[in-house]
Write a structure and sequence with these properties.
This protein has about 110 residues and is mainly α. The chain contains three helices and no strands. It is rod-shaped.
Length: about 110
């Protein structure tokens, strides 16, 4: 005959084991490597990267516009960029140096 009193400790042990297993998985679902906290960190990092991507795309569009202007083979634009970026000028050009803008000497070779 079945005695319910003998199986009571076994039921408690199985229930305790199940609660411990559930606690283990719940802990890792929240704090684990792929848990809810890690997800929130990834979402925040994604927002930061989206802002950086938007900034870089704007910079890329600006550079593409400059390349398009250079490809147009307009000598005035090429000359303007050479003066502004490289510091070149034609031999007959007059150069005006303002007091706040002191030219840096070229590094020795």
């Amino acid at each position: 005959m079945y005695d319910r009193r003998k199986s009571r400790p076994r039921q408690i042990l199985v229930s305790l084991f199940c609660v411990c297993g559930l606690g283990y998985f719940a802990y890792h679902a929240i704090v684990g490597k792929r848990g809810l906290e890690a997800r929130s960190l990834l979402i925040e990092r994604s927002r930061q990267l989206e802002r950086e991507i938007a900034r870089l795309e704007a910079q890329r569009a600006s550079l593409e516009q400059e390349v398009h202007l250079i490809d147009a083979a307009d000598p005035d634009i090429v000359e303007e960029l050479a003066i502004e970026v490289l510091g070149f000028a034609r031999p007959g050009d007059r150069v005006v140096v303002l007091p706040g803008e002191i030219a840096k000497p070229a590094p020795p070779r």
